[in-house]
Each structure stands twice: as C-alpha cells, then as structure tokens.
Amino acid sequence: MSTSKKPTQKPIKKSAKKPVKKQPKKQVLGRGLSALMADVALSHDETSVSVPKEATDKKPVLENRPTTSQSRNKNIDTLPIDRIERNPDQPRRAFDKTKLEELTNSIADKGVLQPILVRPLLEKPDDKGQIRYQIVAGERRWLAAQQAGLEHMPALIRELSDREVLEIGVVENVQRADLNPVEEAMAYQALKDQFGRRQEDIARAVGKSRPYIANMLRLLSLPELSRTYLREGRINAGHARAILAAPDPQALAELIVTRRMSVREAEFEVRRQNKTARPVTEKDRRRDADTRYIEQQLTDHLGLKISLKHKNPGGILSIKYRSLDDLEDLITKLKKA
C-alpha cells in the first residue's frame, strides 16, 4: 500500500525592504513667514497682471476686503500711486540707477507686469479720509512706475505687523541678493533691536547659518569710511573681516582700496601688522585725549599711521608709510590740501 508524499512547502523568502530615502529637510523661513513669503512670490509672478500706462481710469480699491484663503491668492487691486508710500524701515537703501532706468523704460512701454505687496495704514488716512498704503515689497517697481508717469499700479493688500513687514523685507532682499553687506547687517540688527530676535531666529528666517549672521553683524563695528567703501563695492565682506582684525582698521581699508588688494593679500597684511604691532603701554593710556583724537583724524584722512608728540610750545608730527606708493599718495594728498 503506497502512501502519497505531502508536497514539501518551499520556505517563503522575505522580500528585502527597500531602503527608505530620507527626504532633505526644507529650509524653514521662520514662524509664520512661509505663508507671508507666498504673497511675495505672487507679487513677483510676471504673468499675474498687466496695467498699461493708459489705464488711469481704474476704480479705487474696495476698502472692505475678505480674509479667505481664496482672496489671499487671487485678489490683486489697482491703487492710485499717490496713495502709496515707501517704508522708512525698508532694509534696502540704494538702488542701481541704470537698472532703475531700464525698469522705468520697460514700464513706460509695457505697463506694470508685477503687483507690489502693500499693507493698509488705517491710522494714517490722506486729506480726503482715504486709506494710504505702505510698500512691503516692490519699492523699485513703485519708483519706476512714478518715473514712467503712471497714476495707478497693481498691488496685493495684506494686513501685516511691523515685525512681519521688516522680516519680509529682509528675507526677500537677502534671498534675491538685493542688499549690500552693510544694509544686510543693519537689517539683521534691526530684527534684534526692535523685535528681540536672536541670531538663531534670524538665521532660520533667512535660510543662513548662525555664524553667517554673527559675521554680518560684526560688519557694523567697521569705521564709517570702511562702511562707505563696503556700500560702494570698493571692498567686499572678506576685506571687511580682515579690516576688523587689523591694529589700525581705517589705515588698512585705505591701503586695500589704494592698492586694490585681494582678500588674501589683505589677510596677509593683517598678519604682518599684528606681528609688528607694539603693545599698548600705560604711558600710551595716559596720553591726552585731544592728542589721540587729532592723531585719529589725521590717520583717517591720510590713510597712514600718524604719531603726534606735543610739548609746549611745539612738538613732533610723524607720518609712517610702508612703501614708495604710500609716500607718493601722501605727497599727492598734501599738494591737494
């Protein structure tokens, strides 16, 4: 009698789990800023609206605005330009004249293609009792529209706090690289002073690292003339950091501009100066404050180290130069004086 064999059951192979790819973390703009920046993105959408120069008979914006999410995405109003004003706390202070002229010509030809972002100034109506509006993003377009002779322009209207306005201005300009280093540093300082933002908060808001924010804030310690050079683009942030480490920051700034030094050359010069710098003695500390002030004024003016030893009724004025180029520059400046 034959017995039938039971079919052997093959072991079930467990399918290897595919490794789960970690999604890269998205940059966080800051608490509540992501939604605000969506409005800024919309205000830069070139296909949103077009208001030709001839469109000066548009009706004023309705004052009672809905607050639904649909209205936040779709409502673009046309405002009289004379009821719009700039934000005095706008981080960006300077505009490239050539680019502004190009934008003016474009708007004169095609009209305004991008709405600006504004907030209503409910407590500051005009002489006729009509609401005025403050620019949050798009001041350059507003300036160009005025120069092009427009009377109305498209705008997104949002009710925003002072902090939201400043944060939007900082984030927008930093992300679009529209600020010079001094303007950027001043904007970060304003976030700290006016709204108590920590460096970590600011770093998250603009998508930068905390050390980056700290280094930018250090630029505000530069002498005023060095800041001017930085605003004008005659030196960059790398030069500025080298200047801050120099025993005589203003003299180094002048040297960088005069010799057109690279950042690496400026850093080398700082190391050389720090090696040869004489330590401050107790006698130096006791020197007359007026004498130190005159020395600093002359140093700032000539870009060279000045030493004044005053003994009634006369004294000795020493000017230290490092090269023949320095000497030639000094002679030129003295002849012009």
Automatic annotation (TrEMBL):
BP GO annotations: chromosome segregation
Function: Involved in chromosome partition. Localize to both poles of the predivisional cell following completion of DNA replication. Binds to the DNA origin of replication.
Keyword DNA-binding: yes
Family, per entry: Belongs to the ParB family.
Protein name: ParB/RepB/Spo0J family partition protein
GO MF terms held by the record: DNA binding
Stretches that traverse the bilayer: none
Biased composition range(s): Basic residues: 7-25
